[in-house]
Amino acid sequence: MNTKKIAITAVSAALIFVITWMIRIPIPLPIAGAYVNVGDSVIYGTALIIGGLPAALAAAVGSILADMMAGVWVYALPTFIIKGLMGLVCAKICVEPKFSRFALACLVGGAIMVSGYAIFEFFAFGKAYMLTSIGFNCLQWAGSLMIALALYKAFMRVRKIYRGEGKKEEA
Q: What distance in Å separates the CA atoms of residue 156 and residue 23, rounded to the nearest whole number?
């Protein structure tokens, strides 16, 4: 990875962390610190913009930092794996940057998130807990999907600049 990719990966991880940490809605579940966030929309955008392994690393690191700051350490490792996989799969789907591909990436990424947490919660906390939290994860998926789709054109502008495909405008 060159310096530019390392830097954009770090900035993307920081942005995912900040959006996840700052824009969150607490939910009443037995584990303290549970919340719904819109950070997944930034993961989808990062996958579209930088793609591949950098998007996966940014998603994993930014999301695990948010969980650690929220005090939900039990979710740290699953979050790292689930969000990293989301970033990687979404990036692979977005290799061809069309709106339909981006929408598909958001759908698949959300499905990975919901199913990943459902599997983890089933084994860690039991069926009842998993069934209780799956609805909240679906709300997170739906909200992040809508936000990401609304930001598609902005994400594409950033992608073109990042990849040197667009004109650089002077301020």
A: 23
66 in Cβ contact with 92 (< 8 Å): no
Q: Round to whole Å and give the CA distance between 156 and 134.
A: 31
**SS3 for 81?**
helix
In this structure, the number of other CB atoms found within 10 A of the CB of residue 135 comes to: 11
Has this prediction a pTM greater than 0.70?
yes
Helix H or strand E segment including 156: helix 152-162
Instruction: Give per-residue pLDDT as tens, 22-62.
Output: 987 776 666 555 667 789 999 999 999 999 999 999 999 99
Distances in whole angstroms, Cα of residue 63 to Cα of each of 15, 16, 37, 74, 156: 10, 7, 10, 13, 23
Domain 3-25+35-160 has CATH 2.60.40.1930: no
With tokens 């591949």, the residue in question is: 52
Q: What is the pLDDT of residues 59-99, one digit of tens each?
A: 999 999 999 998 889 999 999 999 999 999 999 999 998 99
